[in-house]
Amino acid sequence: TWGEKKEAGRAAGRPWYWHCHPGMRMAVSAAAVPGDGGSPNPGPAAVSLGLSVAVVSSLVNGSTFVLQKKGIVRARGRGTSYFTDIVWWSGTIAMALGQIGNFLAYTAVPTVLVTPLGALGVPFGSILASYLLKEKLNILGKLGCLLSCAGSVVLIIHSPKSESVTTQAELEEKLTNPVFVGYLCVVLLMLLLLIFWIAP
């Protein structure tokens, strides 16, 4: 059973994810294998810590806008500025802490594992808004939260092995890649359209 596999893996000194899906083992274990540049990547303990930090940061980021809006509503009811409301400041501080946590997680585990976990903030923020702001979450909203969580799990399980950049030459080669340059041009074009045409 799942519990027996977990206990057997723990007795053998294996990391927590060893009894999970094989794709999950390959994706997370990739961080424990020395890279091509000769510098070893973090081990299983660092990967577990990095994933935990990524999950907590995602939940914190999901609560920031809810707390800020709650602070604005409270300040508006009192007729004062939201800069004087402690709930608004707690949301702002939580935003900074969440981004710092994301940065730390990116240094410990591959990007393909951290980025999908950011979607966990969507259902958490929706649930928090239903309690703090008394907003109703309809069936489509609940379905969207479920799909975001399912998508995160699928992306993590089937994530490819990430390539580590160890030298400046490799970084310059990737930055001048035609695919990256094309993507950057599309993003800049969309930004210009949004700024000067769609929402001037």
Any overview of this molecule?
It is a single chain. It is globular and about 60 Å long. It contains nine helices and no strands. The chain folds into two domains: 91 residues; 50 residues. Belongs to the NIPA family.
Task: Summarize the topology.
Blueprint: H1 2-11, H2 22-29, H3 44-78, H4 86-108, H5 111-117, H6 121-132, H7 139-157, H8 168-175, H9 178-198
Helix pairs in contact: 3-4, 3-6, 5-7
Tell me, briefly, the overall form: globular
Whole-Å distance between the termini? 59 Å
**CA-based gyration radius:** 21 Å
Q: Give helix % range.
A: over 70%
- How many strand segments? 0
Summarize the structure.
This protein has 200 residues and is mostly helical. Helices cover 72% and strands 0% of the residues.
Notable features of this structure?
200 residues, mainly alpha, 2 domains, 9 helices
